[in-house]
Amino acid sequence: MSESVDKIKSDVRAFVETSFPYEVFDITYKPVQGRMVLEVTIDTPDGVTVQDCEKVSRGLSDFLDGVDLIHRAFTLEVSSPGVERVFKRQVDYERHVGKMVRWTLLDEATGRKEAFKARLQEFSPDRIVVRSEKGLREFPLTLVKEARAVLEFPPKMQRG
Question: pLDDT by residue (tens digit) across 86-109?
Answer without folding.
Answer: 999 999 999 999 999 999 999 888
